[in-house]
Amino acid sequence: MLDYIATRQHAERNRTMLLLTHWAGMRVGEVAALRVGDVVNRDGTIKAEIRLDAMQTKGKHARVVYVNEKLRRELAAYVKHAECKDAGKHLFITQKRTAVIGVLDDEGLTRSKAFVVLKQNVDLSDADLKTFVKERLAPYKYPRIIEFVDDLPKTATGKIQRFRLRAREAGPK
What we know:
- The protein is an alpha+beta fold.
- It is built from seven helices and five strands, in the order ααααββαββαβα.
- Helix 2 (about 10-25) runs antiparallel to helix 5.
- Strand 4 (about 110-115), helix 6 (about 125-135) and strand 5 form a beta-alpha-beta unit.
- The strands form two sheets. The protein has a three-stranded mixed beta sheet, with helices on one face. Strands 1-2 form a two-stranded antiparallel sheet.
């Protein structure tokens, strides 16, 4: 499995996530909720135990996960690779940078609207993005409206909160 992961995109991140689930017995939701400060000491070393609070666990009971030496080496390599410095940030950053919702147009028809977060130093127009998407999707699937945003509303585990985008589009009631 690790050999396959090494050939894929985001190999370092995926390897570390897999090893946390297998070697430390953590659930996927617990791994997704980890913050840099949960794993890294202030001096930059990896903690010997990860303390999960009740909100980070499935059963809503706080627990301690012990980290063996082998896993600490893997976590140290990932932290160095990902340049994780801010203790409040998520340890594993989501790659999700777009969300699509349906919005009503002037004629009462539902159109797809895409919210897109651009990477730093990327200059892209909505026409360029539409052309790119049209080449890869069926004509009826591409979003008719594109809005570039700084960030998308997300849950603590990194899932995009589309209901907030829909509420924003609906406006005040």
